[in-house]
Sequence to fold (252 residues):
Amino acid sequence: MTPLTGPACLRCGDTLDPRSLNSSKTQCRACRLAPPAFVRAASFGPFDGRIRDAIHALKYGGLQPAARRLGEKLAIAIASLANHAPAEMLVVPVPLHRSRHRTRGFNQTRLLAEQALKSLAKSHPDWKLELSPHALLRIKSTNSQAGLSRRERRLNLRKAFAVADATAIAGRDILLIDDILTTGATVRAASRVLVEAGANSVWVATLARAGRLIHHASSAGASFDASITAHSRPQPFTAAHGMQATQHQPSF
Ligand SMILES: [Zn+2]
Fold:
């Protein structure tokens, strides 16, 4: 897979607009204008090529063995948060609505989280990550987000999530897991609900990210100077991907 390259938002990990490269801005426009409830989001790599095929196979083909290999990649994204996030966190996979769960038979994000935690238990035995797959509920069935604008996704997700038991969340540091981060609307909505329920902090790790520039380039037919993406990231801890995350061995 192709690693994410180019300067990234310190908050959500999105690729920074090339037009702001010469400024001192370290967060993308979306995070500056409407700061998310999460502290930081990390992803393993872009949603393309083999990752896309494997996620599709997992979600729509029910190929659960793919979860193990993908879970190891998710573990790398989570490990990149280690120098920043608390050493003890409640791990909350983004849930499916029960109707979707019934159709698919499983929540692929929960499978990824389980596999990632197995991997992290070996690589980072001192890190206390406890899976809490029922802490968050999806109380509104949202239609597929594909093809929707950022605003439409946000409206679609409003009131989609609820906390099952606020006493389980209150005062806890939460690691929210999702498979793909596109506009960030899903993790923004889920993070807000968790913070409103009293979470001390929310951190986000996703397996793959469909970057905004990739989104623009494909949806609007816009082209941008590809050489900009050849620069290495100034902050290796943002939006971790495989190569940087392995070079940057966190200790905690
Ligand atoms: Zn951002």
The chain has one domain: 42-247. Residues 9, 11-12, 14, 27-28, 30-31 surround zinc ion (CB under 6 Å). The domain at 42-247 is CATH 3.40.50.2020 (Rossmann fold). The chain is about 35% helix and 15% strand.
